[in-house]
Amino acid sequence: MSARALLLAGAALAFLAVLAGAFGAHALQEHLEPRLLAAFMTGAQYQMYHALALLVLGAVQASPARDRRFALAGSCFAGAVLLFSGSLYLLALTGIRQLGMITPAGGTLFLVGWGFALAAAWRHGR
Question: DSSP characters for 57-91?
Answer without folding.
Answer: HHHHHTSTT--HHHHHHHHHHHHHIIIIIHHHHHH
